Amino acid sequence: MKQFKGRPVVAGKCTAPALVSHQGFNTLASFQGALQFGELPIIGNKYKQTECDDQNNKDLYRKPMLGKALCLPQTIGSTTGGMVLYCARAMGKSPACLLFSEHIDSLAAAGAVLAAVWADEPMVTVDCLGQEFLDYVKDDMTITVDEDGTVTVE
Amino acid sequence: MDYKMTLTEEQQAILNGSKGETMAKVMKTLVMYGDAFGATKMVPVTGKMGHLVTSFGLGVMKPVYELMNKLIDAGAVSGQKFSVDPKPLDPNVPSDFLKNFVFNKFMYSVQDMYDSQLSKLGLLDDKSYTCTSYMDEVGNKPNKGDVLSWAESSAVVYANSVLGARCNRNSGIIELFGSIAGYVPYFGLLTDEGRKATWIVKVNTSKKPEAQILGSAIGMKVMEDVPYVQGLDKWIGTELTDDACAYLKDFGAATASNGAVGLYHIENLTPEAVEQGESLIAQGAKIYEIDDAELQRVKDSYPVMWKDKNAKPQLCFVGCPHLSLAQLAEWTDNVAEGLKKNGLKKVSVPTVFTCAPGVKEAFEKTPGAEKLKATGVVLSYICPLMYMNNPLAKKMAVITNSNKLRTYTTARYYTGEEILDIITKEVK
Fold first, then answer.
1. Residue B4 domain-assigned?
2. Are strands B50-52 and B82-84 parallel, antiparallel or unpaired?
3. What is the DSSP string of B88-132?
4. Mind listing the pLDDT tens digit for each residue in B244-278?
5. Residues of A at the B interface (Cβ-Cβ below 8 Å)?
């Protein structure tokens, strides 16, 4: 077990299994399949757990993101990113929380804040956890986030 | 709510509900967003117009349209006119019954409703659907120093870098909120400090680097940092000519989609680099050297997502971001010459060139329009990315010279020269 102290961008408590991207997380590329087709018969089957659709992300491609503690350096790509994260949260298709090793980027911050202000349930978001956090955490480890931005990995 | 930045009396009053609950939530969103970046204050949006990234009426994105309705119902609409990204559909682009069924019934099923929402919120006009709103033919070209509330990664990086405007890489919805409130939080690329380069990129290639690959390489390396690029002026000059601007448009789009670059400086070329030179480089900036081998390594790293890697190309898209008028003319001449050289009348792969509606209208008044039509190339205002999001389109062998389109879809990347070669030769 190891603890890391970050900065709560959207404070809250959360426990979830980890899902780790060591590279920049392309929000649009990752969510576009699940958001567009997750509800459709047949086509949507492969997106029921919000499977990552980003072919360029070697860590996450085709892995389910729903309900996970998504651990990442930052998000990259299209400026629809924040809107996509907000939509994913409002539609119940998002990760449980977002845990950034670096300072949060403007697109992810927009998504986290939009969800906090406009969606029924905010998405706990912590940044500045450090590279050591991203080096230590592995897929399916249990993550517990506290209100003050303390992240426990076990 | 608790917040750290200093607000004016007017901003504080809006946050407290003086203009209603919805406007208070708009302001709360902007304040929380700014606080995440240590913004010290909100500053007025001084650019004449906004630009939105969300142009598609995807049936499933109900939360977005519900939010837009809340804004419209509360009269919380944009105080400035705005342009918006390209439309997702154009009947002129090759398709078939099944694809159209998926487009119209499952995907963009609320396009008309969303277009109507955009109109109520402040859309400039029907011709303002493009990712290159800064083209002269479109008319949303910010001035140097203007503070903007824009989204669309390729437009933001162009406005910052080539035009010298000031805009953060805002997300969809946030950019609209800035236009509604008339204020944006002051941080990042709005500040002098945030515009300093933390990377020096040294271009040492033996020929003019392909804009889309160079941008991709830099984007993947520097992520959201600001690069100061040396050695590129040798290949594209020291004047912001039409050719140089078109190059930088494509280069910037690749830096922004393959990474998260919102501003770059090109030594001796882009406005701030010309004015401030190496004083733009932050202390301790990292160095990235790019030669022919590095560009080849980057190109070779792109995954080919086609099921049959040797499939014959079925469709080709050129123009993501949308082509400029000069690029259209050049592509037209090159395709016509290539076909003539190879003894063909029409392109061998169904091909779509995309540009802004205003650019299309201007091009159609030139002799080039007939010349292009004769080659069989379709000219469209569509967003190729939104076309490719159709699961049936994903199964097609689509080729493109756009690194952005490659990144987000199953389209296969080729350089402009390779694309020209493929579409003007008999497909075997």
1. no
2. parallel
3. S--TTS---HHHHHIIIIIISTTHHHHHHHHHHHTB--TT-B-S-
4. 999 999 999 999 999 999 999 999 999 999 999 99
5. 9, 24, 26, 28-29, 32, 35-40, 43, 55-56, 73-84, 86-87, 90-91, 104-107, 109-114, 116-119
What is this structure's pTM?
0.94
ipTM: 0.93
CA distance B324 to B332: 12
- Whether B309 maps to a domain, the answer reads no
Is residue B35 classed as helix, strand or coil in its secondary structure? helix
Tokens of B403: 């690194």
Closest CA to B139 of B318, B363, B356, B365: B356
Do both B27 and B163 map to the same domain? Answer: yes
DSSP A122-137: --EEEE---HHHHHH-
Contact check, Cβ <8 Å, A109/B223: no
What is the domain extent for residue A21?
Answer: 2-153
Predicted confidence at residue A46, as pLDDT, reads: 80
* Sheet (strand B281-290) strand order: B265-266, B227-230, B197-203, B281-290
CATH of the domain at A139: 3.50.30.10
Using the Cβ of B141 and the Cβ atoms of chain A, whether some distance falls under 8 Å is answered with no
Question: Domain tally for chain B?
Answer: 3
Q: Are residues B147 and B266 in the same domain?
A: no
Residues B242 and B157 in one domain: no
Both tokens of residue B193? Answer: 């400090």
Which of B148, B171, B190 corresponds to the end of one domain? Answer: B190
